[in-house]
Hints:
This is L domain-like protein. There is one protein chain. The chain has 2 domains: 92 residues, no CATH class; 242 residues, Alpha-Beta Horseshoe (Leucine-rich repeat, LRR (right-handed beta-alpha superhelix)). 20% of the residues lie in helices and 13% in strands. The chain has 8 helices and 19 strands. The N terminus is likely disordered.
Amino acid sequence: MYIKRSSILALFASAAVAAEKRGLRQVANNAKKNNEFMEDIEFWTRMTQAMSLPTTKRPTSRPTPSSNNKPTPKPVPSTPAPVETAIPSFIDTPLPTVIIVDPTDEPTVVIVDPTDEPTLIIVDPTDEPTSIDPFPTAVPTPVASLLCGLTEEERAAAFTELALSVTPQSILDDPFSSQSLALQWIIEDDVPETPVCPNVDDCKALERYVMASFYFATGGGKWDQCNAPATFTPDAIETANAACDRVVTPFPVNNPRIGADSSDAWLTPSDTCEWGGLACWGTDDSRSGCMDQLDFENDGLAGTLIPEMSSLEDLRFFILEQGNTTGTIPSEYGLFDRLLIFDMDFNDLTGEIPEELFDLNQIQQLDLNDNQLQGPLSTNIGQLTTLTFIQLDHNFLSGTIPTEMGELDALRIAFFNNNDFTGVMPEEICANRNNTNPPGFLGTLVADCNPPDNPEVECSCCSSCNID
Length: 468
C-alpha cells in the first residue's frame, strides 16, 4: 500500500483552508509553535521522499474499445521518477493549520457537510482505531404474534400437523380433496370470534377442521340452507346467517348444550357449535365445547362420508336423513364410543354394513333403511345389546337373519322387509315379541313374509309383512 503524493498535498491544502474558515490559526505570531510546526513539515517531507510513486498519469478519458470487445492491455510503467524533495510552494504562504489532539483521547471520526473543506486531525497512532461497519446487520423488526401466541407460519404448521393426525398425507396433498380445502380455509380465511388454538389440548381446533372437511365433502355451497358466505365480509356473513334457520332435533338430554338453538351459516367466524345443525356438550360438562350432535334432514347434502368424523369421539347423534350421500359407510365409524343414534336413511349408501359398526357399545338406534346396502347381516349384530330400534328395510341385504339378534332383549322395533333375506325368522327373535308369555319388548317386527304360501322369510311372529 502507498500514499500518493498528490493526496498528501491535497490534505495540506484542505487543512489550510478549513483552518482559515474556523479561525483556528494557532501558529501565527508564535515562534515556538512555528518551530514545532516546521518539525512536522520536515517529518512529512521525509515521508514523501521515502515513497517511490509512479509518475504515469491516469488517462483523462476511457480508451476506445476494440471491435472484438477485448480490453486494451495497460502499458507497463517505466521506472518511476524520483520524488521531489522540496517543500511545496503553497506551504510558504499561508501555512496550513494542523490540529494536534491529546494522544490519549480516543480517535474521532468526524462527518461534516460535504461542501465543507476537510480538517486534518492527527491522533496517537498507537490508539485502537474506531471501526464503523459500512454494512451493519439489520435489527429484525419484531413479528406480531397471532392468536394463541403463534406466528402465521407457526399456526399454519400446527394446523397441518393436527390435520395429519387424522388425515393421510396423500389426501392432504390433493388440492381438490375436501380435507385439503378445509385446511386451506382454516389457515387462510378463518378468523374465529373466539380463538381456536391448534396448540391447545382440547377438541375445538380438531372439530373445526373435521366439520369444515365434512362441509366440502358433502357438497357444501349447494345445500338448501346454511351454506358458507361467498366472502367473509361482515355483510356477506350476516346475509348467510339469515339464510340458515336449521337447529338440531331437541332430544331429551340431561345436560345443557351449546348451539342447540343456534343457526349460523357454516364456516362463519362463530363457534363451530353455533353453526346450523350442530350442537356441543355444555359448559357444565368436562366435554364442554366438544361436538355432540350433527343433525341434517332433507337439506340437499350429497358427496360421501369422511372417515375423519370418527375423531369426534364425544359425538352422540349422527343424523343425516333424506339426502343424496353416496359411497360406503367408513369402517372408522365403529370408533364412536358414545354414539346413540346413527341415522342415514333415504340416502344412496352402497356396500356392506361395516363389521366395525357392531362395536358401537352404546348405540340405541341404527337407521339405514332406503339405501343400496348389500351383503349379509353379520352375526356380530348380537353385540349391540343397547339397541332398541333398527331399520334395514329397502336395501339389497341378503342371507338369513342372524339368530344372534335374539340376544337383543331391549329391541322394540325391527324392520327387515324389502331386502333379499331368505329362510326363517329365528325363534330367539320371536321370543322377544311383546305378545309372548312372559312378554318381551319387541312390539314391531316386519319381514318379507308374504305371500303366506311362498314367503321369502317365514315369520309366524312378525307383526306385519312387506310394508312399502
